[in-house]
Amino acid sequence: MASNDEIDLKATTNLDEVEQGSGAGEKAVVGGTSQLSGTRRHVHSLERYINLSSVGFFGVIVLASWESFAVTFQFALANGGPASMFYGSILAGLGCCAVGFSLAELASIDPTVGAQYRWSANLAPSANRFWGLLQGWITTAAWCFACAGPPSILANMITSLAIFNNKTYEPQRWHTSLIMIATMVLAFVFNLRFRNLLDAFEITGGVLHFVLFVVIIAVIAALNPRSSSDFVFKTLTSDVSGWSNPGVSWGLGLLTVTFSVSGYDSVLHMSDEVKKVRTRVPQSIIIACTVNAIMLFVFVLVLLFYLGPLDDTVISAPLPLIYVLYGATGSKAATNTLIALISFIIFFALFNVFASVSRLVWVFAKDNGLPFSDILAYVHPTLKLPVNALLLLCAVVTALSLIYIASATAFNALISLQALALHVSYFFPIMFMLLRKLRGPPPPYGPFKLGPFGIPLNVFALCYLVYVVLWMPFPQILPVTKDNMNYAGPIFGAVVVGALGDWFISGRKRFQMPVTRYE
């Protein structure tokens, strides 16, 4: 007989049947109707209509790795410098692919909106529901705070362009907050028309992602002076941030590159709306990881070789890329245009993030993992969207934007949770899957299987995640003050403590995650 933490419950969704009959207007059975503790639960449904091209570009745009690095590489210059950026891009690319391929295999077995928390609950050797609820809190909290990331980047790009074009302009914190709220509102409004805009947004964003990559690399390489090989491969900066140990500086510089290739689980949270989900979602994850890893490596290499003079204006600028492009083109109009086009890609990523996270909040609420679950699990009957979950994300971004007015440190502390918590959320399902492979029998594989490379890739993915997570709580600058303290560790600890408190107070009774016992 199964214990309270191990519910032997057969899955009610036959994914093979869903794939065979997933027409554009067909409703997918999302979780079906499950029986738990003698009660029957009503389950809301979404429709499967996302095609191959849209789901393929979705993950690529959310990562937007070379764009993310292009607008944040100033942090790597202070810690690690060129050597950390170059070798870090290789390690981050390999680690990203190892983790992504491991998740793709899991997605082929069980393509679910809940992803990490569903897999952890299914594969954990014991305490299944506990691991499901804990993972649900970690993943949901990480992605909710991540929704403020693209608006803050867009706000920095807009204010940096204002400074570039008007030397007398001095940005105030409330300017940044208003820009963040404005971009968030725009993403929310566009998400209400998600189905009508999806194909146009994904194709436009995907094409722009590749075309702009070629254009910017060509501009920098053709017009900027070339740096020496020693500068690119041997220059390790360890005397700018206060850290004197080269190894520590290298590790901290790696984080900027790692941040650019995190978030590849985003497409998983769209699983209930993807046609032929067991093949297309794994394909999207693999494409997103490999394409972005390669493009990031090439961009880092070209940028380092043709960075141009690193004077105080470039190093101290909130967006050094502006001055790198201006130094190459000598034209403010060309620089403004290129930066504006990058901002469009960041906005497309924000559009996708809102869509993905709203589905994650919706399905976690549907499993009674959140307070006010009945409200957050609501699906609008006409729009076929989790509108209340979208409104929650708007509230979170608005609150964080207002916090920025009072304290930039507090704002940065909260959004720093994203990278740390996401990497932790990847660790547990991969570890549980590896244990099942070693102890046997593994769950029935889907169309995508790693085969003999599975165990080595899983082991490398876990080692990479542990290595990266160890560096994330480190402060970027010494000496540590209340303003430059890295609060990622304490904030993550607060989320874990909150999840544990929820489990002991009511979560162990409230959380109704149906755990499929693979035989």
From TrEMBL:
Organism domain of life: Eukaryota
Gene3D superfamilies referenced in this protein's UniProt entry, alphabetically: Amino acid/polyamine transporter I
Membrane topology qualifier: Multi-pass membrane protein
Molecular-function GO terms, alphabetical: transmembrane transporter activity
Residue ranges of the TM segments: 49-66, 86-109, 130-154, 174-194, 206-223, 243-264, 285-307, 338-365, 385-406, 413-435, 455-474, 486-505
Keywords: Membrane, Transmembrane, Transmembrane helix, Transport
Localization: Membrane
GO cellular component, one term: membrane
Xref: InterPro entries: AA/rel_permease1
PANTHER family: AMINO-ACID PERMEASE BAT1 (PTHR45649), GABA TRANSPORTER (EUROFUNG)-RELATED (PTHR45649:SF5)
Record-given protein name: Amino acid transporter
Organism this protein belongs to: Trematosphaeria pertusa
